[in-house]
Write a structure and sequence with these properties.
CATH class: Alpha Beta
Oligomer: single chain
Number of domains: 1
CATH superfamily: 5'-nuclease
Radius of gyration: 15 Å
Number of strands: 5
CATH topology: Rossmann fold
CATH architecture: 3-Layer(aba) Sandwich
Structural class: alpha/beta
Order of helices and strands: EHHEHHEHHEE
Distance between the termini: 11 Å
Largest sheet: 5 strands, parallel
């Protein structure tokens, strides 16, 4: 499937591990991929918390040169509040960072690519698993 995608942290980690399926999907010509400032923050946390700090920081630096990074806006904040309220009403909490990521995906009308099942709890969020 070709389209516009927001790549979650676990997808970028799989890319860093050179997973063939991820590399093939990202190589499809018509795919346009983004990531979020939240995902970049999570990757920095992982890099600084690892045994290979310099190697991981270099990988992250290279990634930042080739993928657009979406930032928060007033619309993101409104969608965050709406999503979190909906999840609370359903009794289905998910990690805070993932609510922000979902809000960015909805704001920019992107398909969220993730391996986290809990994103399915968010109403009208387009999700794909790679």
């Amino acid at each position: 499937m070709n389209g516009k995608f927001l790549l979650d942290t676990n997808i970028l980690i799989a890319l860093f591990k050179h997973e063939k399926a991820i590399i093939e999907k990202l190589s499809e010509q018509d795919n346009i991929c983004y990531t979020s400032f939240i995902t970049i923050g999570e990757l920095y946390y992982g890099a600084f918390n690892s045994f290979k700090i310099e190697e991981n920081l270099l990988q992250l630096s290279k990634l930042r040169q080739v993928i657009p990074i979406l930032k928060s806006s007033d619309t993101t904040s409104m969608l965050y509040g709406k999503i979190k309220t909906g999840l609370k009403q359903k009794g289905k909490p998910i990690p805070e960072n993932d609510i922000w990521i979902a809000a960015l995906a909805k704001e920019h009308d992107l398909i969220l690519v993730t391996r986290d099942k809990h994103f399915e709890e968010i109403e009208d969020l387009k999700v794909e698993k790679w």
